[in-house]
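Lab notebook, bench 4. Still working through the backlog of constructs that have no structural model yet. Next entry is a single chain of 335 residues. Request: give me the structure tokens for it.
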Amino acid sequence: MREFKRRGYDNSAENVLSQKPLIVGVSGPQGCGKTTLCNYVAQTLSTQFHLNVITFSMDDFYLTYNAQRSLSLENPDNKLLEYRGLPGTHDIRLGAKVFEDLFRLHSDQNHSAQIPHYNKSLKNGRGDRSPKFQWTKIQKPVDIIIFEGWSLGFRSLPIVVLETIYKNAQQNSSSHLPSHKFEHLVAINRYLAKYETDWYPFLDTFIHMDPLDINYVYEWRLQQEHTMRAKGLEGMTDEQVKDFVDRYMPAYELYLPGLRDGCFFVRSGDYCQESLNMAPAVGSVVVQVEVEKEQLIQGFKKVEGKYLKIVLNQEREVVAEIELNPLSPQKLLSL
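Model written out:
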């Protein structure tokens, strides 16, 4: 945010995004600090620049308890769909409607949007969608929407590629894929395609919080559960945490390489400009975007299509920042 002040901008950025909200997608594995980052950015933009910023998560769109139970019964031996979490366990239609309603606020003053809330403590920890009166009601036009999720940005694979990966995994003792039937992975892959067509087109810019080693998730999740138990709250045992994270590993194994090697706005292998900048302050979360006054006035159009990767070590320290831009080379500027 320092860049605004260096360039002499004041704190009167209200209503600059008059046509539609800027939607920022934030992806990163469980425990990496997504929520902390999103809340910090939202608070800073709101207090210092008087922008109307809201944040919500893919988790808010989990299927209801009954719908998830039906999905599980329809796929009785598919452990990947037994509980909430993976592609296929979200209400895609509801998510798209929320985005559409938030867009409509800019053109219809009588309209409102409601963001659902999912309560993971209901149904003995299986979770359920909260009653509608507990949803967040939005009545004023929103300038910026920050939307986060652990699998946000994952893209489905061609069936031939999926088959090749699965075949090669049979010879890899550390792979999680052989623990699942191929057709079960195909089901997840098929569900994932709906996120691409129905949710991803809403996103204007993308931030990926990427650990050097995805296995850090086991430790990060353990830390979260230990903290909960230290506060006297119920938490999973260490063995339960391992089982919990294991369910997500097939998706990381299949789809994280594509997100790492490509760019959210173009598929892996397509043209994508890249620049690398080592983080100036290891240990702090630093978000870098290029911001010009014209971008504020014209709805952040120059930010659209930007992809920022924040690389984290095991201590969640930022060790590198990579900007991938499918349009043109861009320099990185500290906020």
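Notes after review: The two ends are 4 Å apart (CA to CA). The first strand starts at residue 22 and ends at 27. Flag for follow-up if needed.
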